[in-house]
C-alpha cells in the first residue's frame, strides 16, 4: 500500500503497517492450483437443456479460458472459501433451516420479519455433505456476468450484485428434493473491478500487494453473492408472489384493462440473533469473524468489523435494535491475504477446523457515529466522519493477540 493511502489513516504508524505485513512480501510460494467449483465453471452437466451457460457472455471455451487467465486465482480462492468448514455450516442453514417469524420488527415488505439458523442439523458430515449438494444444485441454474456500470446502474458503486430471474427457469429451481422451488439468480460483477485487476496485473512487481488484496475482496464478494443466490433458490414465497403478479398482469391484458405493475420484493431473513438481515454479510461474519469493507481504491486496505454500523447500513436492508455509537474497523493483514493465495495453506485445512478463516483483529481504527440520534439515518455515502477517533490495538505487550484459527491464516510463517 502506497504512502498516499497510508496517510489517509494518520492514526496508524509505519510500524503498524510493518506488523500487518505491508512492508515485506514473500512471493515464492504463492499460487493456487486447486479445482474451480462447478458454480464458476463455464457450464456443467447438471444444467438443463436450453439453459444458458454459467457465464453466458463467453460464447466459447476459449473465451472462458481467456477470462480465467485473469480471474482464475479469484475463482479458485472463492471455491475454497465456499467449502471451508464454517461456510458449509452456514450454507447448510440457508438451504435447509426453516424460516420462523421473529418477535421483533417488520420487513421492508411490511411483513413480520423472519429469522433462521436454529435448525439442529444431523451429524457434521451429513450436513456439510448436504451443503455441498445444495451448491452443486445451485450451479445448475446460476448465471454470472460482468456488467458495465453505465449499462447496469444497479451495479454502480458495488463490487457485485445478485438479482433473481425467471428467464430459462420459469418454474423455479430446487435445491433439494424436499423443498418447494425457489427462484434462479444472476450475479453481475462490476466491470470496473475487473479492469482494475487487469491494470494491476500489467504493473509487475510494484503493485503485488494491491493485486493480492483486490483478488481476495473479489473472491469474498463472489461467495457473499452466492449466499444471496442460495437464499433466492429456497424462497418459494417470493417465487409465488412473482407468479401472482404475472398472472394479474396477464389477466388485465386479456380483459383489455390498464394495469399498474407492482414492485415485487422480498427481504432476507435474519440469521439467528443478528441485527441486519443481509445474508452475504452474515456469511462474512460466520466465515471471517466480521463484515468485510473496502473503499474501492486499489491501494486501500481491506477492513473487518463486527456488527452493522453507519458504515454499512442502508434504508433497504431490514435491521433491528440500535446501532452502536462507536465503530471499530480492523485492518486485514497482508499475512492473511497472502495465505489466501497459498495452496499450502488450503491443503492443511481440515474438515474439523473451526474458525479456520477468522481474521485476527489486532490493529485498527475507531470511528464515532456522526449522528446525534444513532437511529436517525443509515446513509454512509456522505456522512462518514472526516476525522478518525484514534488508533485501536489489541496487542499484548506489543505483540499481536494469538490467532484463534486452527489453520493459522494470520501467521506470518508456516
Amino acid at each position: 500500500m502506497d504512502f498516499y493511502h497510508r496517510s489517509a489513516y494518520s492514526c496508524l504508524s509505519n510500524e503498524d503497517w510493518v506488523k500487518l505485513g505491508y512492508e515485506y512480501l514473500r512471493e515464492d510460494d504463492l499460487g493456487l492450483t486447486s479445482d474451480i467449483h462447478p458454480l464458476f465453471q463455464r457450464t456443467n452437466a447438471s444444467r438443463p437443456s436450453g439453459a444458458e451457460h454459467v457465464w453466458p457472455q463467453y460464447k466459447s471455451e476459449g473465451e472462458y479460458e481467456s477470462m480465467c487467465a485473469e480471474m482464475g486465482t479469484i475463482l479458485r480462492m472463492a471455491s475454497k472459501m465456499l467449502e471451508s468448514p464454517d461456510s458449509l455450516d452456514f450454507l447448510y442453514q440457508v438451504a435447509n433451516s426453516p424460516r420462523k417469524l421473529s418477535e421483533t420488527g417488520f420487513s421492508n415488505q411490511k411483513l413480520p420479519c423472519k429469522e433462521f439458523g436454529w435448525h439442529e442439523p444431523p451429524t457434521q458430515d451429513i450436513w456439510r455433505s448436504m451443503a455441498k449438494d445444495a451448491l452443486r444444485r445451485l450451479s445448475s441454474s446460476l448465471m454470472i456476468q460482468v456488467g458495465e456500470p453505465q449499462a447496469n446502474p444497479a451495479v454502480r458503486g458495488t463490487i457485485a450484485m445478485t438479482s433473481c430471474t425467471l428467464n430459462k427457469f420459469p418454474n423455479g429451481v430446487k435445491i433439494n428434493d424436499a423443498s418447494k422451488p425457489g427462484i434462479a439468480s444472476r450475479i453481475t460483477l462490476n466491470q470496473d473491478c475487473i479492469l482494475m485487476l487487469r491494470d494491476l496485473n500489467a504493473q509487475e512487481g510494484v503493485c503485488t500487494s494491491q493485486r493480492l488484496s483486490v483478488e481476495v475482496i473479489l473472491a469474498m464478494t463472489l461467495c457473499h453473492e452466492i449466499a444471496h443466490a442460495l437464499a433466492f433458490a429456497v424462497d418459494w414465497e417470493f417465487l409465488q408472489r412473482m407468479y401472482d403478479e404475472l398472472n394479474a398482469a396477464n389477466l388485465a391484458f386479456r380483459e383489455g384493462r390498464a394495469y399498474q405493475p407492482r414492485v415485487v420484493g422480498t427481504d432476507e431473513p435474519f440469521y439467528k440473533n443478528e441485527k441486519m438481515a443481509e445474508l452475504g454479510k452474515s456469511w462474512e461474519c460466520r466465515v471471517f469473524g466480521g463484515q468485510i469493507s473496502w473503499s474501492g481504491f486499489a491501494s486501500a486496505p481491506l477492513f473487518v468489523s463486527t456488527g452493522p454500523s453507519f458504515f454499512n447500513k442502508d434504508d433497504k436492508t431490514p435491521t433491528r435494535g440500535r446501532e452502536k455509537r462507536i465503530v471499530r474497523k480492523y485492518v486485514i493483514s497482508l499475512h492473511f491475504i497472502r495465505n489466501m493465495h497459498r495452496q499450502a495453506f488450503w491443503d492443511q485445512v481440515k474438515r474439523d477446523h473451526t474458525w479456520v478463516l477468522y481474521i485476527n483483529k489486532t490493529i485498527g481504527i475507531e470511528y464515532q457515529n456522526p449522528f446525534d440520534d444513532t437511529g436517525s439515518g443509515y446513509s454512509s455515502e456522505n456522512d462518514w466522519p472526516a476525522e478518525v477517533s484514534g488508533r485501536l490495538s489489541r496487542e499484548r505487550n506489543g505483540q499481536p493477540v494469538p490467532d484463534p484459527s486452527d489453520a493459522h491464516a494470520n501467521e506470518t510463517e508456516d
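Residues 208-233 form the longest helix (26 residues). The CA atoms of residues 174 and 181 lie 5 Å apart.
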